[in-house]
Each structure stands twice: as C-alpha cells, then as structure tokens.
Amino acid sequence: MREATLVPEMTLIESVRETLRMEMRRDPDIFMLGEDIGPRGGVFLASEGFVDEFGEGRIMNTPLAESSIIGIALGAAVNGMRPVAEIQFADFVWPAINQLVGEAARVRYGTNGGKFAPMTVRVPYGGGVRGGLYHSQSIEVLFAHTPGLQVIAPATPWDARGLLRSAIRSNDPTVFLEHKRTYRLVRGEAPDREYTEPIGKADVKRAGSDVTLVTYGLMLHYSLQAAEMVSQSDGIETEVVDLRTLRPIDGETILDSVSQTGRAMIVQEDTGAVSVSSEVAAIIASEGFFDLDAPVNRVTAPEIPPMPFSPLQEAEYMPSPEKIAASIRRLAEV
C-alpha cells in the first residue's frame, strides 16, 4: 500500500534528479556520464548541482560521441561499477546501438552468468515539444525487441522514482525512457524514502468496467483525460493500464483487465507497425481471445517517418485526448 503521508508534489524531472542524488549518496560505485551533464547540469537539468557535490570523477562530461558513452559505461559495468549514462536526446542514440543491443544485452548470457552489466541508460524521448524531425523520436520498440535489455517508461513522478531506483540497483542493462513533455508538465506525489517499484509490473491507474485501455509514457495522461471525458459525456467507464515497463511486458495485468471489460485498446505515440502496441495486441489475441466482445483497437501515430515541426502538423501526428476519446466511444459501441 502507498503511504498516506507524502512529500509535497514534484515534477517528473525533479523526481528523477532527487532519485539520482539519493542513489549516488548511497552507493559510491554509481557514477554518471553524458554530454553537458557537469556544470551545466544536462540539457534538462537532471544533474543540476551534481558536479559540486560529487565532483568531476563521478559526474563525467563526455564528447558528443554516443558510442563511447555507452561503451565506457559497459566496460565500467562489467568491472563492478554502476554507471548511469545519459543520451541527450533519444534521436542521438543510434551510434550506440551496437554497444547496447549487440554487447550489453548479451553479457549475462555470453558469460554463462559469470558477468553482469548493471548499467542504466537514461533517454529523453518523444514529441509534443516542437522538436521536429531530430528531437522527437520514439525509439522504444527497438530496445524492447531485444532479449537481455530491460526497457522502462515511467509516466509519473512516483513511478519514475521507484523504477529508476530499481533500474540502478538491477544487475541487468536498462534503457530508462523519460518523455520530455512530462518533465515539467506532470506533477505528482513521490515520497522521500528508499522505495522501489517492481520492473515488469504494470499499474492500473484508473478502474473501469467497459473498456481496457493499455498505454505508457505521455499517452497515459492523455488517456486518463480521455477516460474522464467519455465517463462524463457517455457514461463509459474505461480502465487505464499503465505498462510502465515495456520489456518485460506484464501480460497478467493486461489480461486480468480485459477479462473484466471484454474490450481492449492500446494507445501509443509511436507508429503502429511492429511496435509495443503490436505485442500487447498479440498477447490479448492469443491469451485473452475468448474474453473479447470486440476486436482489439489501437490509437497510434500515422505511418510516416518524421515528427513534423509545424504545430498544426505535429498536433495531427500525435494522439490526443480527443482522438483517444473518440476511439473509446467507437469501441464501446461494438
């Protein structure tokens, strides 16, 4: 049970910052590395003030070279350290693919359990911030496809704190996705204590009896807005399941919800083909088919490569509470 007495509300980026600070104070083997994370405190100020407290030996500014950031983190991890690497924007992660997918994900298996890679890679991702083509990408599916990697996408300050702590303490490599638009837009409770949230466990953020809606990241907040809209206007009660972890996916919580509602939809900001929503739909279709009263529905971005820069086009590209609400209504009528 969550405690009744909590610290005042904080933003998601404040939750991330304070969790990193608490973990670094706790464990001297933890260090951070990334571009501009030193005196500047990072582009989003996740490490603001850290270099003054922990020194340049633990808060390491790096060149603009993502492959070296992750390569250094991996080498340190297999030798007993617990690095927290920051990729400045998700769109810049591609040079580090081999280090993450080809190397870090295979350490435990390749050494027959003799070595581990306890490294956390923080990655700001997603659109809705006028970032255009190269600062708005959703990159989660590539990493969620890879056995050996954990992929976490929290949407609230509470979950960000509990799951980031779990990621740092885990012995497996973790890609920790932080949606840029939630950094200061989302506020919530997060207790100032050493709690953790389990990796691989979804959370029902809103109870409902008519439709199951599965989502993650920024879309959780849009989905909760949509659920309230259709509840007030149509009397449709939507159960909103926040995946929180994209690898592994919590099929049990999803199927339990679908068994009660009989209708399922998945909402994601990413494009739909070969995606997280595809996997969730497959889980429901293969293991919950006889509980369904209607086909599984999805709300995703359109199948085009970029996130447009134009405000009107960006709004058209991204799912919105209104689009999600319309989809809930259509599904409830089937």
Observed structural traits:
alpha/beta; 38% helix; Rossmann fold; 5-stranded mixed beta sheet; 14 strands; 334 residues; 7-stranded mixed beta sheet
Topology:
Layout: E1 10-11, H1 12-26, E2 30-34, H2 50-54, E3 59-61, H3 66-78, E4 82-86, H4 97-103, H5 107-110, E5 120-125, H6 140-144, E6 150-152, H7 157-169, E7 174-179, H8 182-185, E8 187-188, E9 203-206, E10 211-215, H9 218-234, E11 238-242, E12 245-247, H10 251-261, E13 264-271, H11 276-287, E14 297-301, H12 311-317, H13 321-333
Helix pairs in contact: 1-7, 3-4, 9-13, 10-11
Give a description of the structure.
The longest helix has 17 residues, at 218-234. With 334 residues, this protein is an alpha/beta fold. 38% of the residues lie in helices and 19% in strands. The chain has 13 helices and 14 strands. It has helices at residues 12-26, 50-54, 66-78, 97-103, 107-110, 140-144, 157-169, 182-185, 218-234, 251-261, 276-287, 311-317, 321-333, and strands at 10-11, 30-34, 59-61, 82-86, 120-125, 150-152, 174-179, 187-188, 203-206, 211-215, 238-242, 245-247, 264-271, 297-301. The protein folds into two domains: 10-188, Rossmann fold (3-Layer(aba) Sandwich), CATH 3.40.50.970; 203-333, Rossmann fold (3-Layer(aba) Sandwich), CATH 3.40.50. It has a seven-stranded mixed beta sheet, sandwiched between helices. Strand 6 (150-152), helix 7 (157-169) and strand 7 (174-179) form a beta-alpha-beta unit.
The strand count comes to 14
Q: Which CATH architecture of the largest domain would you pick?
A: 3-Layer(aba) Sandwich
Using only CA atoms, what is the Rg?
20 Å
Q: Helix and strand succession? A: EHEHEHEHHEHEHEHEEEHEEHEHEHH
> Quick one: CATH superfamily of the largest domain?
Thiamin diphosphate (ThDP)-binding fold, Pyr/PP domains
Per DSSP, the total helix count is 13
CATH topology of the largest domain: Rossmann fold
Spatial strand order of the main sheet: 3-2-4-5-7-6-12
Describe the global form.
Answer: globular
Low-confidence stretches: none
**Domain module tally:** 2
Largest sheet: 7 strands, mixed
Q: What share of residues are in beta strands?
A: 15-25%
- The top-level CATH class of the largest domain is Alpha Beta
Helix share, percent: 25-40%
Overall pLDDT metric: 96
Question: How many angstroms separate the termini?
Answer: 37 Å
